[in-house]
Amino acid sequence: MSILVLGLGNILLMDEGVGVRAMEAFDAAWTVPDHVSVVDGGTCGMDMLDLIASHKHLIAVDAVKTGAPPATLTVLRGDEVPAYFKGKLSPHQLGLSDLLASLRLQDEAPESVTVVGCVPMALGTGLMMSPEIEAVIPRMVAMIVEELARLGVTATPRE
Asked: How far apart are alpha carbons 120 and 110 in whole angstroms?
């Protein structure tokens, strides 16, 4: 049972990079078994097709537009995931949507897709995230650990 934890976002657009930053924080604090891949997907181009296809489960970590207040965290699973793409936040979301659609057409889509998301506050140009968004990164990391546990995987804290 291979699992991909994929951090998504553009770190040059402030809070839009929250998925990449949360994935980095997770990778720095936790170790996972060999069948779990932790990858910085950045803005997720079609070159990710083979990588995603090679995993049974995908946990995408990203900024999301849900209509909730900024810094609100959410987990979307299964049929909830396509609805996430209706309110596009940034160009890379279309890329992930296209990737998942292509994989379904080829019958190579992951068995399950989960999105761990955070509603951004600021999407201006800059490397720094809003303090409110930066403050929720530890909770996003905990949500990744929880999702892995839901899939039967134990993440171990690094020493």
From this structure: 27
**Burial annotation 109-145 (CB, 10 A radius, 16+ → b, else e):** bbebbbbbbbbbbbbeeeeebbeebbebbeebbebbb
In the block, residue with structure tokens 């699992």 = 3
What pLDDT score was predicted for residue 86? 53
The residue ranges of the chain whose pLDDT is under 70 are: 44-45, 82-95
76-88, pLDDT tens digit by residue? 898 777 655 555 5
Structure tokens at 78: 């299964």
- Transcribe 61-98 into DSSP letters: EEE---SSPTT-EEEEETTHHHHHTTS--SHHHHHHHH
Q: What is the pLDDT of residue 49?
A: 85
